[in-house]
Amino acid sequence: MQTTSQRIQHYLFTANLDHLISESTQIETAIHAFVSALGNLPPGFNLDTLYTYKVPMLSEDGTCSLIEELAPEPYDIAPILGGRSEANTRKLLLLNQLVEHATQLAGADWLGIYQTRTNKIGDPVLVKLAYRGRPSRAEFPLNETFARGSTNSTVGLSGHAKVIDDVAAHTAAGGAFYVCDDEVQSEICVPVLDEGGKVLGIIDAEAQPKAFFNSNRMILVVAMALVVPALLP
Length: 233
What we know:
globular
């Protein structure tokens, strides 16, 4: 079995983040801090907040979100997870606690965890399990066509992280970016991997200032990516 240090180094090389190798000790410290912050279900917690969330309407072709127009019905993640269960509830609670803690530490405007799943029509997607920030798309198709306009799908297919310091410059140069908030100018998207390097999901974070995701914030997101596999439903 790999040590935490070995897992970190393997992840960084596999995810194309080897420039953070010198930060391995800090990443390990962040991992332990995240694990220590995970607790129990609060009394009277509303399970609907774990399983359902508001989403924006989609354009007719499904390629973009109508940012200011919410769908009449919230998205329910229970069906794609096989239903509500004690195990799923526990996992979703832990993921939400992780996102809450990481958002407070990183100060990002948006932060979310997605898992690779098969949707109701049999297509591979990234489904959003937990997030903090504005309502956003629930499922991102995992195919090359959609990836041309989505960082999430690009990372979900390639398993390689993407860091964007200037969204306007990135998109002007033809780079993929799916707009959920037109004020966002920075993004980091990293894969969630199993020990063999298979993509289990992604973590995506966005912020309004340019070049927001410095090494300290990257360390937090990478640490999340190494904690998440044990928490996935």
